[in-house]
Structures are given as structure tokens and as C-alpha cells.
Please model this.
Amino acid sequence: MSADIAQAFTARRVLITGGLGFIGANLARRLAAAGAHLTLVDSLIPEYGGNLFNIAGIEDRVRVNISDVRDEHSMCALVPGHDYLFNLAGQTSHLDSMTDPYTDLEINCRAQLAILEACRKHNPGIKVVYASTRQIYGKPDHLPVDEKHLLRPVDVNGINKMAGEWYHILYNNVYGIRGCALRLTNTYGPRMRVKDARQTFLGVWIRLAVEGKPFEVWGGSQLRDFTYVDDAVEALLLAAAAPSADGGVFNVGGGPPLSLEALAQLLVEVNGAGDYRVCAFPPERKQIDIGDYYADDRLLRQTLGWQPRVTLADGLARTLAFYREHLPHYL
Ligand SMILES: NC(=O)c1ccc[n+]([C@@H]2O[C@H](COP(=O)([O-])OP(=O)(O)OC[C@H]3O[C@@H](n4cnc5c(N)ncnc54)[C@H](O)[C@@H]3O)[C@@H](O)[C@H]2O)c1
Model:
């Protein structure tokens, strides 16, 4: 890769909340390779995406702290001494946020405020990058969706992530705790949770494709965009390194959008085998589905010079190869 942005973090002290999760661990691997001093905070709550296997091979180069971001005392002890905070810990299941709204509130909202308070009191010079989500837009009024689109979440998770995002912007604007937010779309790749459809449908599709079993496509005509995890990591690094990102919110998109059925076809094609069945949405999911979505990510491209490098076909191939080798660690 030309001019690897991760080199800007060599010997810098970096804290990653959710660092044993899918995106956090891929970020950690990239930063470890660049020689950053890393602390990963993760609660390893079993139903979430954290997995110690995600840091296989870099265990000696990271400090892992198994703690919960809801614990204010832990956060006050962890935040000092770091140059950067990638704030990725989150409850990510939309459905769980409806059946257990208070846990989502505690993690995605209250704990975010506590993390920022820890920064304000104990390390105001830190730069914070927050992993937000396209879910906060709700059902789009128009496509593609840019950052000026109304925020009108359709589930509890979307509301809490919206508040989490805006705490970061508020602390940037009022207290000068430099921060910004990336509104991620469907992100996929090695180390994503594939156990079930709790977090993302694509994870379980990949698992079933690798196992040679048919998977279900709910609906099928919805348009979506997808970001390969290395491209998402690149966006996080660029946002951390660039002063021009401070106080900003940026959509992260990917390649051209496609329907879920077209994605299913592509997955089967890239896998070289497989089968799927199109069926109706489970009613509890239909209620909180956002329909078609794809991002207008020109702001990110123009402000930070980001561009996705990995095509969907290539990204799916890399992901399938990873799970063919390591699936038992993710079941
Ligand atoms: N993957 C996507 O498609 C996507 C899309 C939009 C936004 N995001 C956001 O990106 C972030 C990372 O998501 P991911 O896909 O890597 O999910 P993930 O579940 O793999 O990672 C989240 C990590 O946070 C940890 N965590 C959860 N609650 C915690 C707590 N209370 N204390 C400490 N650690 C806790 C989990 O154990 C897990 O390791 C999340 O904030 C998510 O909302 C992801």
C-alpha cells in the first residue's frame, strides 16, 4: 500500500474501545504492524462480537484490558496517557435494542458520555474518533443519503447511537476535546461476527456459505452499500490523523449499491457454490428495517482523501477464505 496512513501512528499511544471486536481488532492489527502502543478495552460480553482470536498473532504487541465502558472508574484510569481514542465499543444489535432498550441506552448513550467525561477530566488533549452508524438516518427520504439528511432513527439503537455521536461533537465544540464521527454502513470482512443474524445478515450468510448450507434472504430487493473492513479502518485512521476532521461527521460508503438478492448471487458466485432462498421479512425485523440505503460519502473523500480500495467481489473472496480457515473460532 502506498503511503500507509498507519505509519502516522508509529510509537503513538492508542486506546481502542471494543478492541477485540470486528472493526476494532482489524484496526488494532493495522496499528500494531505500524508500531503503535496499543491498549484494547473490551468487555467480551458473549453475545457481542468480541473474540480473543481476533488478535491472534499480535497478542505480544497489545495490552488488553477486559473491562466495561459502562464502568466510569475503569475509563478514568484507562484514558490518561493516550494520544488517540478510537471509540468503537457498542451494542450493535438493532433487534436487541428493542427487546432490551436499557442495555443499549447504558452502552451506546450513557457510557459514551462517561468516556468523554473521562477525557475532559483526565486527558483533554486526546483525539477521539467515534464509530457511528447509518442507522441514525432511519428510512431515507432520498438516495444517496448525505450528512445533511434528517436524522430520524427507526429503532432504539439508532436513537442511542445518534446521541452518542452528538456527545462527541458537543465535547469537541464546547470543551475542545477533538473528536469526529464516522457513520459506517454495512461493514464486512475477516473477524466479523458470523454466529447468527443478531448483528448482520451478511455474517450468517458467509458462515452458511462456508458450511455448504443454504441461507435466507429476507426481502431481497433492498439496495445497500458495503464497506470492506480495511477500507473502514483506513477511514478511521484518516479521521484520527486529520485536524480537518475535528467536529465533523462523515458518511463512509463503499462501492456501487446493489440489492440484497444481487449480493446473495455474488456471494454464491465468489464462493464457487451455495444456495439461498428469498423469503419474507420476519415481522419484528420488518418494523425496524430502513429499506433502501446507500451513502453519499463525497465529504469523506473530499475532506480526508479517502477512497475504497477493495471491490465487493474481492472483499467477499477474502472473507470467505478467512472463514474457511478459521470458522471454528467464530462459532
Ligand atoms: N459492522 C458494521 O457494519 C457497523 C456499521 C455501523 C456502525 N458500526 C459501529 O462500529 C462499532 C464496532 O462494531 P463492530 O462491527 O466491530 O461490532 P463488534 O460487536 O464486533 O465490536 C464491538 C465490540 O465492543 C465490545 N463491547 C460492547 N459493549 C461493550 C462494553 N459495554 N464495554 C466494553 N466493550 C464492549 C464488544 O465486546 C465487541 O468486541 C460499533 O460501535 C458499531 O455500532 C458497525
Remarks:
- The two ends are 32 Å apart (CA to CA).
- The pocket of nicotinamide-adenine-dinucleotide is lined by residues 17-18, 20-24, 41-45, 48-50, 68-70, 88-92, 107, 131, 133, 184, 186-187, 193, 200 (CB under 6 Å).
